[in-house]
Amino acid sequence: MSTLPSDLEIARAARIRPIEEIAAAAGINPDALEQYGRYKGKIDPTRLDAPPPAGKVVLVSAMSPTPAGEGKSTTTVGLADSLARAGHKVMIALREPSLGPVLGMKGGATGGGYSQVLPMDEINLHFTGDFHAITSANNALMALVDNHIYQGNTLNIDPRRMTFKRVLDMNDRALREIVIGLGGPSQGVPRQDGFDITVASEIMAVFCLATDITDLRERLGRITFGYTYDRTPVTVADLGVQGALTLLLKEAIKPNLVQTIAGTPALVHGGPFANIAHGCNSLIATQTARRLADIVVTEAGFGADLGAEKFMDIKARIGGLAPSAVVVVATVRALKMQGGVAKARLTQPDLAALEAGVVNLQRHIHNVEKFGVTPVVAINRFSSDSAEELDWLLAWCAAEGVPAAVADVWGRGGGGDGGDELAALVAGAVAGPNSFRHLYSLGLSVEDKIRTIVQEIYGADGVDFSVPALKRLADIERNGWSSLPVCMAKTQYSFTDDASRLGAPKGFTIHVRDLLPKTGAGFIVALTGAVMTMPGLPAVPAALRMDVDADGNPVGLT
């Protein structure tokens, strides 16, 4: 019995072109390209000989994720390749992978099979060092804050009311809660502290929402990292270090250029998680891609209840852009799991489970429609899918009035014909009418914004605020932050805040345990349920299968 090659084997066998060739084909003038080796580069948008952003945006989202896998990045890459194959001028805009999930449970984030961005091993690991720069800027801020307190604390910062943490691009539960400054007077001022993962850092969010380096500096200055003893917010600008933080990020802020197996140019830049942050690649990369291509295919993390909602209500609002089409990725396997089938039995045909689980996809479709955009369903094909199951799902989509196509881009690639039908549907949606709108007005109170999201998008009956969250609401109102949009931090596995409740539950309440004003990024994070801003590793981390061979080539990377 023959076995299919792994993603890494496919990537290593692919013909990869010098990055200057990819840049030239994309219309990037040599002055704007800064090479990082032969196959990676950074683009300086200020040096581009290109018009203002005008390309249309295709947002790729998905049903609620399951351990069965949905393949959103794979579909994103395959769709873009297929659109390019059909003659469209296309560019991809993706997030950078975090080392936490690469070494943990999720694996890499560069697509899969014959729909990948390359070089996959370098992108999945240290890439061009952007995450290290963001980590350094975050931790430099906290070193400067604690030094200020130690050196006399002229800003009157209350160490008990710090709202900013140190970060690490790793899943390390042991660092969630720590005590620093121990060892005597010369070691600093003792206080309780902790670590978030880098992708949850507000500096990551600022990095991804800034429009240029000047805006980056201004947003960094607006970050609130704590409060004084009389409960007045203290910002980076009060400390006077926004210039130093910008200096640490001045190279990282330039978008990274790579390519797909089929040679489609891709900008991979920034990487906030969608369950604990806003889940979209950098606005600078998206707008740069819109200057260079007629169609920009981008994605937002996890299901449409998280990443897509945040794209619409946060990124699109700040960037002044609107998606011309939204693709919702689904798989037969994941829908059967939503219908109650165990992962070990997903290869067995089961129309009853498929019918039971399709309600999850249905809610995501209806949610996209609430933003005034007609969704297109991409059925990401797995080899175990039966023809009967695929036909049933296509018929269900037709009955719902939703365009849908089977995409076999993992096995046949978007550069082949695996995504041609999906690309045709998306191209039609892009060319069609668009009545994009945000879900809520910024004039609503923070409480009402949260209630709108949990009722309209999650399907909840209402929201319950803890006592600390109610106190935060009063602080937000008092400090004049009520006009900011909301970024929900919620489990990705369910519409509820309980990861075990699959499908499309009804009759539940979302529990908000705390609210975190992110005044630099420009949104309020609502922490729900048990969601963590520093994940932990699983019992069997992906790192256990990773290695290098005698020639230094990676082994076991997915």
TrEMBL record:
Source organism of the structure: Pseudarthrobacter niigatensis
Family, per entry: Belongs to the formate--tetrahydrofolate ligase family.
Enzyme Commission code: 6.3.4.3
InterPro entries: Formate_THF_ligase (IPR000559), Formate_THF_ligase_CS (IPR020628), P-loop_NTPase (IPR027417)
Keyword Ribosomal protein found: no
EC main group: ligase
Keyword field: ATP-binding, Ligase, Nucleotide-binding, One-carbon metabolism
GO biological process: tetrahydrofolate interconversion
Pathway: One-carbon metabolism; tetrahydrofolate interconversion
Catalysis: reaction(s): (6S)-5,6,7,8-tetrahydrofolate + formate + ATP = (6R)-10-formyltetrahydrofolate + ADP + phosphate
Binding site for ATP: 66-73
Gene Ontology terms for molecular function: ATP binding; formate-tetrahydrofolate ligase activity
Protein name: Formate--tetrahydrofolate ligase
